[in-house]
Write a structure and sequence with these properties.
Blueprint lengths: L1 H15 L5 H27 L5 E7 L2 E6 L7 H13 L2 H12 L13 H16 L2 H15 L2 E2 L4 E2 L14 E4 L6 H6 L3 H14 L10 E4 L6 E5 L11 H18 L2 H14 L22 H18 L2 H15 L18 E4 L4 E5 L2 H15 L2
Antiparallel strand pairs: 1-2, 3-4, 5-6, 6-7, 8-9
Helix pairs in contact: 2-3, 2-4, 2-12, 2-13, 3-4, 3-5, 3-13, 5-6, 9-10, 9-11, 11-12, 11-13
Length: about 375
């Protein structure tokens, strides 16, 4: 009797979706997930309206954690609103997107971070793409000029962190793999020489023989010589911190798209072929591929899925698409997708920010939501 009930339930499900393929089932799940994302982001926007100068960052210990506009994640919430406006055409989402984007305008003159691509291009970049607002374009170009001041031609890269050894600061010109994500804005604004020099320097020095990446490489800024290779957020200096690997995957895929330079595509393929065999059963990476301690990073899964969908479009390699599909199925599941009204109105659960420091561990992350929304929309657009 039990087997008959299961059989009838399965037949009923097939009838309801008209004999859907796995592809169509995933598309339906992603549409529902984006509907959930809309409700989350609207609720978060309404809550944040009176908190001037702040943007949502995470939800931890039952409390919404915000950051000021100079924190590297500030552009992801307005960016998510713009993407969901693109998906729905909902005028309220556009109003929210415009409001929270406007909070970031002063970043155009800020030269204290390498993360202006994240902060300005995810917000103003999406805004300009969708509205053609010339004021947005001017802000993007000014932010790119500010970012370009952090480039050192001797090193051939943009400085990431401002910290260094007090006794010999010139030995600690720090470049992190994350910085690949800030190059698209420079290319867009006409700073191609700087963007490609940085990508080439990173390509030369950040990757091991197996195509895994160091998180941090330091240089002597007077000579350009590499002085150290290590991690900051991974398990160990020689381990493969998951989000760092997918920053590289996304960054080199994007650099091929915007430049057409085959060496960038080749590197993206090498990174993909390194990380895919190391994924667990649900295809959402552990926080570090070499760590025994199991702690998922849904943000790494979102970034990777979005990158693989684009890489599939550039290579027609079905493995990249089927891997992204596995990741999106997991992220749409109850294990990761938070119901409306829960999770501090963030979309995804189980992100890992900086496990060695004990910060943002097993929490939602604003950038995980952004790249999940982007990945879902990229898949639906295939």
């Amino acid at each position: 009797m039990k087997n008959l009930i299961i059989l009838f339930a399965a037949i009923g499900s097939l009838m309801l979706c008209g004999g859907c393929s796995d592809n169509q089932l995933l598309r339906n799940d992603l549409k529902r997930a984006l509907d959930v994302a809309v409700e989350h982001e609207k609720a978060q926007a309404e809550y944040m309206l009176d908190r001037e100068g702040e943007l949502p960052k995470t939800f931890e210990k039952g409390e919404l954690v915000t950051a000021n506009i100079r924190w590297w994640t500030s552009g992801f919430f307005p960016g998510s609103l713009w993407l969901l406006y693109e998906h729905t055409g909902d005028g309220q989402l556009r109003e929210y997107a415009e409001h929270f984007t406007s909070r970031l305008e002063s970043l155009k003159d800020y030269r204290g971070t390498h993360d202006l691509g994240f902060m300005v291009f995810c917000s103003y970049g999406n805004g300009y793409r969708l509205t053609g607002n010339e004021a947005y374009k001017e802000i993007i170009n000014e932010a790119s000029a500010s970012l370009a001041t952090r480039f050192n031609p001797t090193v051939g890269a943009i400085r990431s962190w401002n910290t260094g050894r007090k006794e010999n600061p010139e030995l600690d010109y720090i470049v992190i793999i994350d910085n690949m994500m800030n190059l698209e804005m420079l290319e867009w604004s006409g700073y191609s020489d700087i963007a490609r020099r940085h990508a080439d320097t990173t390509l030369k020095n950040h990757f091991r023989e197996d195509n895994s990446s160091y998180h941090v490489v330091t240089y002597n800024e007077l000579t350009g010589e590499v002085t150290d290779k290590r991690t900051a957020q991974g398990l160990a200096d020689e381990s493969a911190w998951a989000r760092g690997q997918v920053w590289g995957l996304y960054g080199y895929t994007m650099m091929y798209r915007v430049t057409g330079e085959k060496r960038y595509l080749d590197q993206a393929v090498k990174i993909a072929d390194y990380v895919i065999p190391r994924l667990p059963e649900d295809a959402i990476p552990n926080w570090d591929f070499d760590a025994e301690q199991q702690m998922k990073d849904s943000s790494a899964g979102s970034i990777m899925a979005s990158a693989l969908i684009e890489l599939y479009g550039l290579t027609d390699n079905e493995l990249y698409l089927t891997t992204a599909e596995r990741q999106l199925r997991s992220l749409c599941s109850e294990a990761y997708l938070a119901p409306v009204g829960e999770n501090g109105n963030f979309v995804l659960r189980h992100g890992t920010g900086h496990l060695p420091a004990g910060t943002e561990v097993d929490v939602p992350l604003t950038y995980g939501d952004y790249y999940f929304i982007e990945a879902a929309m990229r898949y639906l657009a295939l």
